[in-house]
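Sanity check record (used in CI):
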Amino acid sequence: MTQSENSSRMDSDQVFHDAIHGSMELPPLCVEIINTIQFQRLRNIKQLGLCYYVFPSASHNRFEHCLGTCYLAGKMVRHLKQQNPDLEISDRDILCVEIAGLCHDLGHAPFSHVFEGFINENRRPDNRWKHEDASCKMLDHLFEENPHVREELEPDEIAFIKDLIIGESENSARPQFLYQIVNNRDYNIDVDKWDYLARDSHFLGIGKSFDHERMIKMSRVIGDQICYRDKTVDNFFDMFYSRYRLHKTAYQHKTVLLFNTLLCETLRSAERHLGIIENVYDMRRFTYFTDSILEEILRNEDNENLRVARNTLNDIIKRSYRYIGTVEDGNDQGEEPGNIVCEANFDYGAGNENPLVKIPFYERGNMHESFNYNPDELEEMLFLPGTFQLNVRYCFERI
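Expected output for Deoxynucleoside triphosphate triphosphohydrolase SAMHD1-like:
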């Protein structure tokens, strides 16, 4: 491609039609990133992993989730700037926020969080593998393999994008509220969550009860953090309840948990012969490390070393286990040979605490000061559950 051809492709936004957000306009540099092999791998990683084996319509991928997060990130940061033109937000800052939203999941391995749990089984808490760190490494690799993309960004902008993905201002110095848009570590409200909750609810056929568009319109920056109008508190409770419902209905459905357990057994067995874990440390190999790892195991029928892994995968495909009930503490039902016990941990996103207490709100008559609701105030305002955390253990036996 000549320089003039490349420049012409970088002149205007491109419109993507999305099942969740409708027509999404994404900037030219984001489109250039999308059109790389390193980003295209996300087409082959299911957003919900083995949920697809239980909920057939949950076939969406990390690819479209990242496009949606990019779109919402741009929408959010532009709204905040419109609300207060004096904020230190440049057009380049907006672009960096959009790229961070686009690339925040570049580092997800096959089956996403299940694989993350598998690789961290024997690691210390301070030495855990995190997909956010891998996203930054894959972004570096993407730039190395596509210098025409890297040339469009300054080194300090690349550092800023990585910090936005991590959710901390470690290597860049921008207004703190910008780091709350893609990965908000302060109170867990960000565009990544809005997109996946809306997208997963849609493709699972569950529907959602919260309105992220309203949340965006009711947001503003106060004291260098993103705050929300006080009357949106009900909408935020609906959002956290939607998260809980998705976990209870789908993410931690008892059969999904069983399949995830069997998948981990498969990966442990195949790891000794395929060097699966090595893929996450070599970005060139990681580029082609997708959900197709299961097909690779299954099709090697002549490889006796993978026989145990194939048999375990067939237990998933043939549904070789049946649910026999929950296991209470002190009940040894799950200890019987051949039985599998899976534990579900349901909460609203903050363990046994009410996640709403951390959100900064503001009142219509006082848009320059923020406040937090205390638990007693929230108890009076909302119909809250008696507990925000629930643990359940499911038992299965081989048929």
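DSSP finds 17 helices and nine strands in the chain. If this sentence no longer matches the regenerated tokens, the check is flagged for review.
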